[in-house]
């Protein structure tokens, strides 16, 4: 309030000073002073109306899919060579990043910078995940079809997870977390790679957890049957198939998905390391793998137990065979003895 009156008095002093050398018009001076005061005092906002939001926040939808057990990245690169984002690290052998823009990038100069929010991105991973950035729901199937052409072991039902990125240039920090979204000061291709890697691993981990859950349920059914009957009817071939499935799931999570391989981009820059660690914590990657490992140990324990039962069953069978052979040998010996006795008589 004091500032407004100071502005008014200063303006009036200027007018009075200038009037000493020029003809004095009191009514005109009062009008000018009133106009100056009015221009300096802002009008109150009408009810229901506030100041316009000057924060240019851009929301970018992110969708992660797990659609197959293997994807041929070389085939995708051959079909979409114009859309490939050049790799920024040596650890890009298990994925390919594609960029789709509504304008021709090659027609611009070498210094031309493309904002990530102005294009659509898709990051495809060899182990079967695809993460889509800035692509609306009605466009998803078009982009996923580019992946399915080079996918093997396509699932009947894809697994999906939704996320969002809010790009906020006025953000003081580099990033800020939120429920089902992350706020970034700026989004670039390295940020897309980091976010895509965690979301791709997370949705793949969901699939492998469901596979192990199926194994746990199957062994739980076997145990319930043994509780009722005291035996089980599984043959050795079926048991070996379960062993192979459990081992392959664990190997895929560790080797193919690379759950414990830290991103080289995160190693280079602390900003991306912060995003990487936040997302892994947000999606509870380590905890979920711990649960998966616990379930696999339960499966492994049951497999060892059933293998011992089958081995004992086989040993029992062999023992009965030996007993049978010894019995036959004794009968034959007794027969030969009786025959020799009759011959002597």
TrEMBL record:
<dbReference type="InterPro" id="IPR003734">
    <property type="entry name" value="DUF155"/>
</dbReference>
<dbReference type="GO" id="GO:0005739">
    <property type="term" value="C:mitochondrion"/>
</dbReference>
<feature type="domain" description="DUF155">
    <location>
        <begin position="122"/>
        <end position="292"/>
    </location>
</feature>
<dbReference type="InterPro" id="IPR051624">
    <property type="entry name" value="RMD1/Sad1-interacting"/>
</dbReference>
<dbReference type="Pfam" id="PF02582">
    <property type="entry name" value="DUF155"/>
</dbReference>
<protein>
    <submittedName>
        <fullName>Sporulation protein RMD1</fullName>
    </submittedName>
</protein>
<comment type="similarity">
    <text>Belongs to the RMD1/sif2 family.</text>
</comment>
């Amino acid at each position: 309030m004091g500032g407004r009156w100071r502005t008014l008095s200063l303006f009036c002093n200027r007018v009075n000073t200038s009037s000493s050398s020029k003809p004095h018009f009191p009514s005109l001076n009062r009008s000018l002073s009133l106009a100056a005061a009015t221009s300096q005092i802002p009008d109150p906002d009408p009810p229901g109306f506030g100041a316009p939001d000057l924060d240019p926040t851009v929301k970018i939808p992110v969708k992660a899919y797990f659609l197959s057990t293997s994807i041929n990245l070389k085939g995708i690169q051959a079909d979409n060579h114009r859309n490939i984002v050049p790799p920024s690290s040596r650890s890009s052998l298990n994925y390919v990043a594609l960029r789709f823009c509504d304008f021709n990038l090659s027609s611009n100069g070498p210094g031309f910078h493309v904002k990530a929010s102005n294009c659509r991105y898709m990051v495809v991973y060899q182990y079967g995940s695809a993460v889509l950035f800035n692509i609306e729901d009605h466009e998803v199937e078009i982009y996923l079809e580019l992946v399915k052409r080079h996918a093997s072991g396509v699932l009947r039902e894809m697994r999906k997870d939704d996320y969002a990125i809010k790009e906020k240039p006025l953000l003081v920090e580099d990033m800020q977390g939120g429920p089902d979204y992350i706020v970034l000061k700026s989004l670039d291709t390295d940020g897309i790679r980091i976010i895509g890697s965690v979301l791709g691993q997370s949705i793949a981990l969901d699939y492998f957890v469901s596979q192990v859950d199926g194994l746990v349920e199957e062994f739980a059914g076997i145990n319930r049957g043994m509780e009722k009957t005291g035996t089980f009817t599984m043959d050795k071939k079926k048991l070996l198939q379960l062993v192979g499935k459990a081992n392959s799931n664990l190997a895929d999570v560790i080797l193919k998905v690379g759950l414990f391989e830290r991103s080289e981009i995160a190693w280079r820059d602390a900003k991306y390391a912060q995003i990487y660690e936040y997302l892994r914590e947000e999606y509870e990657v380590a905890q979920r793998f711990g649960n998966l490992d616990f379930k696999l140990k339960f499966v492994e324990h049951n497999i060892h137990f059933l293998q011992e039962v089958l081995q004992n069953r086989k040993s029992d069978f062999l023992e009965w065979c030996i007993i049978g052979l010894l019995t036959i040998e004794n009968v034959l010996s007794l027969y030969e003895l009786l025959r020799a006795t009759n011959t002597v008589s």
